[in-house]
Amino acid sequence: MLHWPLIAICSVAQPPQLVATAEIAWDARDRSGLESPILPGVPHDLLGSFGSGICRLEEPNLFAAVADRGPLDGATTYRCRVHVLRITLAEPLAGGSPARLRVELVETRLLADEALRPCIGFSQAYAPDDQSRSARLDPEAVAATPAGTLLIADEYGPFIDEYSMLGARLRRILPPPAFRIASPDGAPEFELPPHNTSGRQPNRGFEALAVSPDGSTAWALPQSPLIQDNALDASNKRVGINVRVLEQDLKSPGTRERVYQLHSPKHGISEALWVAPAKLLVLERDGHAAHEATFRRVYLADFAGATDVSTIAALPSTDLPPGIVPAKTRLVLDLCDPAYGLAGAAMPEKIEGLCFGPDLSDGRPTLLVSTDNDLRPGEPTRLWLFACDPTQF
After folding, report:
1. Model-level pTM?
2. Is the peptide bond before 98 cis (omega within 30 degrees of 0)?
3. How far apart are CA 229 and CA 226, in angstroms?
4. How many CA atoms lie within 13 A of 113 on its CB side?
5. Full set of structural domains in the chain with CATH
6. Are 198 and 260 in contact (CB under 8 A)?
7. For 71, 140, 334, 371, which has the most beta carbons within 10 A of its beta carbon?
8. In terms of C-beta density within 10 A (0-12 exposed, 13-18 middle, 19 or more buried), how is residue 49 classed?
9. pLDDT digits (tens, 9 = 90+) for 217-268
10. All residues at 6 or more sequence positions from 308 whose CB lies less than 8 Å from its CB, including other chains
């Protein structure tokens, strides 16, 4: 049975403490065995981008991490992959400075579909007549199940895919039609209105994924509101804040849809994490880097009293009508808090991974946050470990 050590985080009153950090060099190599360059001067076996999605596995200190669709934002035939990492504290906690995290790459496994066709990040590798048969994949989140499999959120579909730990897809779960577009394309501008009037926005499909400890339910969260939910104005500028959260029964076809409200239409959801029944941690951030990055926060979202909006065809951009109740949110972690020393010139653009981290010897539970460097030269992947004081639970 998988271990969910942070269930009591909903009661934490004080900000978590930054206890350890790590930086993985941009030119570190993985264990895929892909020796030929994917681009001139860009090896196909770069380890980067694995901070796109990360989850804790059952074995102590082992984690699964997924790279997204590769360099140049879907312009290459990048082989999608999942990494197994061992993450531990390299030195004991001492004084007030963060310790160092040791990150060891154990294995790299290339992803393939049920017919063992390679899953690739190439934006043009879509199937217009049956999107579920597309070879293109954009893995943005990963969650482990108690059955020893991995659920991976595909942003392109959007889909929820289940894979063996060896990287073979076992099944593809299609969301309700409301989440899918009618006319896919390799260029984002041709997936926007007027080409599509409903479904996920281009490159803003399922970005976050959480699964219950018993493996019965998954929650998939788009990065932004769906097109039909008045997400865009007449010039296709993002103006909506009402994100439909899909609650997917993994044992049957049953689904529900709840609403998470972004704190600004300029923000997006990057990750989610199960902490208790109907409660998720949700990572919401702006799209900036360095000094312009001012909003990247983790909220506790309580969906217990949220309305099921499955039968509502369209939501307004901002204020919900009477009778529709969104998730209640409460701030848990502000990554831009000056106390952490993370904000400023070195703050990465893409804070995308969130999972339970290694247990501390003093018994405190931890949250692990990871960044996606998009395989950019010179940009390391960063990991930050935050501890919560159990006396505050």
Report:
1. 0.94
2. no
3. 5
4. 16
5. 7-392 (2.115.10)
6. no
7. 140
8. buried
9. 999 999 999 999 999 999 999 999 999 999 999 998 899 999 999 999 999 9
10. 256, 257, 258
